[in-house]
Design a protein that fits this description.
- There is one protein chain.
- This protein has seven helices and no strands.
- The protein is mainly alpha-helical.
- α2 packs across α7 and α6 crosses α7.
- The two termini are about 30 Å apart.
- The C terminus is likely disordered.
């Protein structure tokens, strides 16, 4: 049984995983609707225009932490012999909390109180956004852990 680290973070695979994660983020942003979606899309476009490559760099910088946080889910899915995608989907709130714990820890260490307060205000909506991304995340992980997405039963 290979770990997510052994699968996703090896030198030949890591750049592909990063590219897939960037695509996942872009797809999630594109899928946002309503007023909050307009704001999210606008902010995303500004970030990409001001610093091209920033999203790629951010994913690369945080990937090890993301994989570490997802490892227990992967291990449990393997132990239960369940496909990772549906396993994560059934635990979307817990997956979101695990991933957001990374930014929670960073925010807690931040010295700037304005940044801390802004983060605390955005955190609840951030969780909803991460939860909606879990199905795509599950498919991304399945792509590398199973060689192909699981085939749905007819």
């Amino acid at each position: 049984m290979s770990t997510l680290t052994e699968i996703l973070l090896v030198p030949g695979t890591r750049p592909k995983v990063i590219a897939d994660c960037v695509r996942l983020i872009e797809e999630e942003v594109d899928a946002k609707g309503g007023l909050s979606g307009i704001a999210i899309k606008g902010a995303f476009m500004v970030v990409k225009a001001v610093k091209p490559g920033f999203i790629n760099e951010a994913v690369d910088h945080m990937l090890d932490d993301f994989v570490r946080r997802l490892e227990p889910f992967h291990t449990e899915a393997q132990q239960k012999n369940e496909p990772i995608g549906p396993f994560l989907n059934a635990r979307a709130p817990a997956v979101a909390d695990a991933l957001l714990a990374i930014s929670d820890e960073r925010a807690a260490r931040a010295k700037n109180q304005t940044v801390k307060k802004a983060y605390e205000k955005l955190r609840p909506s951030g969780k909803k956004h991460v939860e909606t991304a879990v199905p795509r995340l599950g498919r991304l992980i399945a792509k590398y852990t199973s060689g192909a997405p699981p085939v749905a039963a007819v």
